[in-house]
Design a protein that fits this description.
This protein is mostly helical. 59% of the residues lie in helices and 11% in strands. Strands 1-2 form a two-stranded antiparallel ribbon.
């Protein structure tokens, strides 16, 4: 396999990993939900709500 093909195959993981790290450590609160349940909250979002884990959000809302 050529180096270019190897690089292109590795790129999606690398890009996805970079975005995950960006969102995780962004100082702005970020929440992802499906309309009923919060699926993801970054650390800033958890701090905003005074919580330390995602499960606490859904327990608090009764979801």
């Amino acid at each position: 396999m050529s180096r270019n093909v190897e690089r292109e195959m590795a790129m999606p993981y690398s890009i996805a990993h970079s975005y995950q790290r960006l969102i995780k450590y962004l100082p702005e609160p970020i929440f992802v939900h499906d309309g009923m349940v919060v699926l993801f909250a970054n650390q800033a979002g958890l701090r905003l709500l005074g919580m330390s884990e995602l499960s606490e959000i859904n327990e608090e809302s009764g979801a």
